[in-house]
Amino acid sequence: MIAINSMQIKRRFLIFSLLLLTFIGSAEQPGSAATLDALPRVNIVKRRTVIVRKGKVARDFPERKRAVVSYPVINGPKNSEVLNKIRAALDFPNIFGSSLKEYQEDAWLTDFDYKVNYNQNYILDLTFTQSGVGAYPDTQTKHFAFNLRNGELLKASDVFNADGLDMLAYRVNEILQVEIKKIIMDNPEIKGDAEQMFGALEFKVGNLDDFAVSAKGLTFLYDAEFPHAIRAVQPGGRYYFPYAQIRNYIKRDGPLGVFVR
Question: Who contacts 204 (Cβ-Cβ below 8 Å, separation ≥6)?
Fold first, then answer.
């Protein structure tokens, strides 16, 4: 009979414990699991598709048998949590609410494209544009600004100091109101309806969430949503501020901090 002293028992217990911890660690972190990896920029490839309409749609609108669609494909690791969040947000039907098949079955769309406004310093900013013809020609835009550290859309609370939101919205609204006065002055025929058309328009704190990022400043976006019949006198809805003018409102440790340090 072989005697096992206490030192051997301790040594064997230690080896078993280390093996067990290794096994548990491997089980908790499988190679296929998504990883949250911050990305200074992303690799985007433009994919171009031509929609070809057939049947009744093509017969009724022969001049609109085709429509060109260009949209971004985000390249990179399939298990990146950041990239997968962005891919999900930019899934084609999420942009303007229609799939390629729906665009094909309807004659409205003539052109669909996008522009990369900014893609560095852990920020990705894109604007999508679609144009089409119904009762009237029309163009629509949709904007996305992503935080490449977590894949989430940027919000005012992420980038601006909480105690400055009211004043920042006030400053943007001042520009909007000046623009409205100029529109009324340039279009005297609408003066009698001006209160009804413009009276409710105000840029508020809630509107600060929609802003476009560039290397030199921010553009706050505002859609008055006028019906097509009076779209010609709708405010432009793009209010640009160089970073130097709004540096006191920007969080130094936030996603836009790199522009004001």
Answer: 169, 173
Q: How many helices (H) and strands (E) does the chain have?
A: 9, 8
Single out the residue of 155, 145, 87 nearest to residue 117, CA to CA: 145
Phi-psi bin for 234: left (phi > 0), alpha (psi -120 to 50), beta? beta
Taking the C-alpha atoms of residue 74 and residue 88, their distance in angstroms, rounded to an integer, is 10
224 and 201: one domain? Answer: yes
Tell me the C-alpha distance between 134 and 82, whole Å. Answer: 38
DSSP state of 117: E
Looking up residue 104, the CATH number of its domain turns out to be: 3.30.565
Q: How far apart are CA 187 and CA 33, in angstroms?
A: 60
What is the β-pairing status of strands 211-213 and 43-52? unpaired
What is the number of structural domains in the chain?
2
Name the pTM for this structure: 0.84
pLDDT tens digits, 6-42: 555 455 544 444 444 343 343 334 444 555 688 999 9
Q: What is the CA radius of gyration of the chain?
A: 27
Residue that the structure tokens 């598709």 belong to: 49
